[in-house]
Amino acid sequence: MLTGEAATGTAYDAVVPGSAPARPVSIVPSVLPADFARLGEECAALEKAGVDRIQWDVMDGRFVPNLTLGPDIIAACRPHVTVPFEAHLMVEAPDELVPRYVEAGCALLIVHAEACRHLHRTLAAIAEAGAAAGVALNPATPASAVAHVLDLVELVLVMTVNPGFGGQRYIATMEPKIAEVRGMILDGDHDVDVEVDGGIAADTIAGAAAAGANILVAGSALFRDPEGLEHAVEDLRTRATAAVA
Ligand code: DX5
Fold this sequence. Notes:
Bound molecules: D-xylitol-5-phosphate
Oligomer: single chain
CATH topology: TIM Barrel
């Protein structure tokens, strides 16, 4: 373990003096807890509340035990806001769906390493389709699964719940993996963000950010804040930023 004056940033930075400063914090809502009868209005409210982009949780009922959004629903919401859309594809066969979600207006597509027989090829295909690529890791999947694709992605998503449902408990034992992924990114001098998703709330966001996450996805914590979306977004952003200051 290296010692010395820690650079600003995260747990990983604390042990590698002079490593890169913390990357800008983004608060990204999952629309999973939104009112599906008013999704266009909900997206507009999220944009007004100051979110950096919107994440669509796409589930096929096979990769995860839940079924959610097709591309036509996302396309219908696209004209209602200007913030970028990202699709979190929790699906068994992402390759065949990539063109549909790009066409629907998603600028970034996140696929699961566990769902891709040829992950390198799938990520390259997302770029060829005109979107940025991201790769997600379920809790049991080691960080090493993304070691050879960091040049193909804009972000690595470290799941802090087992995917399929909102409102689950944050898995704090993922924090060393968050730091490990950030370390791999820094060691390879990659321009890649670390995203986390699942159980991110006022009491968990600091731990995730301090470990190395700079894109923080939240669903329940945003939509269930009694003081409203704007308060929730600002509070989470403040807490995450303070954790890496
Ligand atoms: C899990 C989903 C959730 C959702 C956010 O498959 O991806 O993580 O986005 O859930 P909460 O409500 O925990 O923020």
